[in-house]
Write a structure and sequence with these properties.
By secondary structure, the protein is α/β, with parallel strands linked by helices. 34% of the residues lie in helices and 29% in strands. The chain has helices at 55-64, 79-90, 92-95, 109-126; strands at residues 2-10, 14-20, 25-31, 67-75, 98-103. The relative contact order is 0.21.
């Protein structure tokens, strides 16, 4: 995906990557291949009570972002920060192109693209050149 900007919406099960430039856009939907895990919420149960990060899933997302200049990562929970941390550890060149991490619920693809366009318009105004 070769674009100027991309927005990644992510939770622990799925991701939407929308890359866009002035003249075109591409949308890719990715899903974690891990089976759903039941979390223990009972006091005294073994485990952290949270789903372990799926590094293969994060690698797929990183692959979609290889040729994007600026990246915005969004999502409703902790997966967005887990992705950012993983990219900083394993895909440093991609992580260096992240310009923001924002909390966003469950928008449609159109709402996601509109959010990204507004965000990047502000970023571009702050960083002319």
């Amino acid at each position: 995906m070769r674009h100027v900007h991309a927005i990644v919406w992510i939770d622990h099960r799925e991701a939407t990557v929308i890359g866009f430039s002035l003249d075109r856009q591409d949308t890719v939907k990715l899903q974690s291949e891990r089976p759903r895990e039941r979390l223990h919420r009972k006091e005294g149960a073994v485990g952290s009570g949270r789903v372990a990060d799926d590094h293969e899933f994060f690698d797929q997302i990183a692959g979609e972002l290889r040729e994007v200049n600026e990246i915005l990562v969004v999502g409703p929970g902790t997966a967005k920060t887990a992705l950012e941390t993983y990219l900083r550890d394993r895909h440093r060149a991609t992580a260096d192109r992240i310009v923001g991490v924002e909390t966003v619920d469950h928008p449609s693809d159109g709402q996601l693209l509109a959010f990204a366009q507004t965000f990047f318009k502000r970023v571009d105004q702050l960083n002319p050149g």
